[in-house]
Design a protein that fits this description.
There is one protein chain. The longest helix has about 40 residues, at about 40-80. With about 200 residues, the chain is of the alpha+beta class. It is built from four helices and five strands, in the order H-H-E-H-E-E-H-E-E. The mean pLDDT is about 80. Strand 2 (about 140-145) and strand 3 form a beta hairpin. The chain has helices spanning about 1-35, 40-80, 120-135, 165-175; strands spanning about 110-115, 140-145, 150-155, 180-185, 190-195. A five-stranded mixed beta sheet has the order 2-3-1-5-4, covered by helices on one side.
């Protein structure tokens, strides 16, 4: 901003000097020709005098205008400095994204194919089936297969239920923590796993 202000001031001063020099040269020419034209009569002499006075006033006004332009340039520069942006305001912290709502399994139909790994023995399988049937959202839970501590259960829901709610219900009823390994409501498939299976 300081370099631009200096360049502007210099251009204004140069223009004022050129105008003043041209007016002064014109005044000199008029004064030089005055004697030569005195023979042409008093009317021409009076006209030249008035023209000379007007030129003098024009020079004064030009110098005054140059001073005013300099003051105006300085005022504009000061205003621009005052309006310069302050330190950048830090961007607001991003709003934390809420976890996407878990999709529930639909009730009815042929049911959900539930696979449960690391079932704690046959007694644990019985507890698991009882825990499922006791859940208010469950209509029926039929064991289709049990081998190598992995159970396949056909689960029919009476009400919509999420996989995490189902795992929490089993955990609460059996006392063994159960986690969700895979939940595919659109394909009616669910895979759960016991964490601390007791063999």
């Amino acid at each position: 901003m300081t370099d631009e202000r200096a360049a502007s001031d210099e251009a204004i001063d140069r223009a004022a000097r050129i105008i003043a020099r041209a007016l002064a040269d014109a005044e000199i020419i008029i004064a030089t020709d005055r004697e030569r034209r005195q023979q042409q009569g008093p009317q021409m002499l009076d006209t030249l005098e008035r023209f000379s006075v007007l030129l003098g006033k024009l020079v004064e006004h030009t110098e005054h205008l140059a001073d005013r332009m300099t003051e105006l340039t300085e005022a504009v520069a000061a205003l621009a400095d005052a309006r310069a942006p302050a330190a950048p305001v830090p961007a607001p912290a991003p709003t934390p994204q809420l976890p996407e709502m878990e999709r529930a399994f639909a009730p009815g139909g042929e049911g959900i194919d539930v696979t449960i790994e690391s079932v704690p023995g046959f007694q644990g399988l019985m507890e698991l089936q009882r825990a499922l049937v006791r859940l208010p959202e469950v209509q029926s839970a039929a064991v289709r297969k049990y081998q190598d501590d992995e159970a396949a259960i056909q689960l029919v829901l009476a009400q919509p239920m999420t996989a995490s709610a189902l795992a929490a219900g089993i955990t609460g009823s059996t006392g063994h923590p159960v986690i969700v390994d895979e939940a595919l409501p659109g394909q009616l498939r669910l895979r759960l796993r016991f964490l601390d299976a007791e063999r």
